[in-house]
Amino acid sequence: EKLYVLRITIWPFNISLINAHAETEEKDEVTKESCYQRLKQAYDETPSNDIKIIIGDFNTKIR
Asked: pTM (2 decimals)?
């Protein structure tokens, strides 16, 4: 799992880019849940007035 946050400060607003690469579907539920908890924490810790953009590879499977 990789998680990066880039905060771009430009006038008149700021942008927070959150880039996540989640664990694969084959990983156990505890590992995957930990990954998504870290993503939520990163989102919650960015300033509320920032424009927040989440990008990444979430390794999901559609059945």
From this structure: 0.76
